[in-house]
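Mods, move this if it's the wrong board.
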Amino acid sequence: MPGMGGGPAPKPRNARARRNHDFAPQMELQFEPGEAPELPTSWVDEDGVKRRVNWSPLTLDWWDRWRRSPQAQIFSESDWNSLLIAAFVADKFHKTFKVQYAAELRQREAAFGATPIDRLRLRMSWREDAERGFKASEAEQKRREKETKDRYGSIHAVKDETA
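Not the wrong board. Structure tokens:
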């Protein structure tokens, strides 16, 4: 309920001093795409013993989906390395279905844009698919248009009467 706090009503969005802009400079890196590796067939345990990896069919499918995902186009070598670590977590989850592995896997996948919410957080959007007439970022475009109208809608050109 508005007004329950006893203070004044909040200012309109376009009149607020803080708009949560990113003021820190961004570091630009040279992008080098990484190649999606195959899942390893063996690993060395903490005792130095070489062990065979028996991947769950669900994990193999999970890995294949990530390799074919649109996000994979922007993965660097280090991204693939992080996703490879996530594959071991995914495999533990697919073999045990324990909540602790599900939670860890969800966090690791979020860093790569696994769900629509994750992609919004990472500021990812789909390109328009002209063949199907589908534009996933249409809602985002409408939101931006409304925000611009709210912010600058009251600004009008005035006639210069000095000329």
